[in-house]
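Objective 1.3, modelling of assemblies. Example input:
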Amino acid sequence: MELDQGSSTAMAAAHNVHNVRRGGHVHVVPPKVLLAVYGALLLLTFITVKVTDFELGMFNVWVALFVALAKASFVALYFMHLRWDSPFNAICLIAALFFVCIFIGIAVLDSREYHQNYTRPGGGQILTIQQGH
Amino acid sequence: MSTISTIPTSADAHGHDDSHGNGHDPHLAHHFDTPEQQMASAKLGMWVFLATEILMFGGLFCAYSVYRHNHPEVFEFAHQYLDKTLGAINTLVLITSSLTMAWGVRLAQLGNQRSLILCLILTIFGGYVFLGIKSVEYRTKWEHKLGMGQYNRYDARHQASGETAEHEGALKNQASGGGPIESGGAEHPAKPGTQPPGAPNPSPASTKPAAAAGVYPGYFDPNAGTPDAAHIVPVAPPPAVLAPEVTEEHRKGHASEEELESEYDRLNKLDQERTSTFFQIYFLMTGLHGIHVVVGMALIFWVLVRAVPMTARRTVLLSRLASAGLFFIYVGILVRHNPTWIIGVILLLLAAFGIALRVMKPQPALAAAPAGAALPLGYHGSFGPDYFTPVDIVGLYWHLVDLIWIFLFPLLYLIH
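Predicted structure (tokens):
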């Protein structure tokens, strides 16, 4: 770090850069936004707990997932600063989620392929090694 | 990166945390053009790492999805062993600690290091509370013999070792006096005759329940009769116990502990094995998440030490280590004896806030620092508007921990 201490031009350049940085390139999240996001997260947590009291059939899990996704979006956009960041960072996150979705989606599709071996309800899927073969 | 930098002898270099600006930026590595570029690179690197973390958890979520897709009734039954209230409290704890972390990043950007220290301590404290509640939950599972693999009562290996009777004895013992679980086995030795009807027979023959059942009706082996005939064939489903009756009973709400105990005997072998698998998924997912919480707390601890003025660093380091030690002692106590966990929480509370007050006190050494003296970089604490990358990056990690829990909580605790 001490290498450019003697160089006045380097110091001048760094000085300029420094001023630019001070000039507001750093985005500071306002307290109001943080508190609003916190309130939204609390509200959504309350909703996702309360919604389990209602019988919605298959929709229960989708409601839970949707609420979780909304909460995750709030955290990522505001707490994790993605809203004001370089889009590259958001691309990283979205790509990871995309590939996880492909992974899970195809795995679940494939598990249907063995449906004849799996019965529901009541379980009943057994694979057993028959003795004597 | 060097830790020593000479502050030039100018008037405005005195007394401000963020006044490194008269020379070059001491935090700028020479292979970066600008601090913005350096910061953006650090953040991009962190996001790539977070993407790999998401992919790692994706594997576990995949196991969860496939298993739940195939056996939704098992999830509906087994999730009743999880405490919804504790899970919800833990969600609130993590969200709150996420807020204090985000606030800490904000304070670091503004150069308010005293409040930053408080925020970081609160965040670490949130981690402690989360892990404390988690260990209460794990302890309950352990008491009910709902561990991993052979330590799970629904696992065939567990039942084959004849621990069912011991478990019943331990439960009775607990109901009467809440004594330690170890004594249950000694007072109620396993006797085959004392097993309740319907409990699994520990003889080896019964561990192959499918042997007596016929082949699954829809199955056709094209190679039957040849040397290539399948050795592994699907067999006809055993009588369903879990699915229609048991789940219907619990649709209205959570079953009591006694009801869950009696369900245990009514489940058939196969459903018991599946319930065991549910708990493997539960422990793997929450356990890996818990490890991330511990790592996140250690990273925040590192940031905290750097945010503290030089003169107070040793104090903070030692006291935080002491509080971590207290925490592990308290978890140790918790695993052995039930109600003492509240004492542990109070101890931690005192430790955390005692240290916070200690750090908040103005440091006389700082006020005495003469103008123009050569001070080490970060003498007043390392972070300010020029340099807050570690706070930001560690904050991202902590938010990811929160993010994963946001998905784990409804998927494990709130199954309907």
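Chain A touches chain B through 80 residues (CB under 8 Å).
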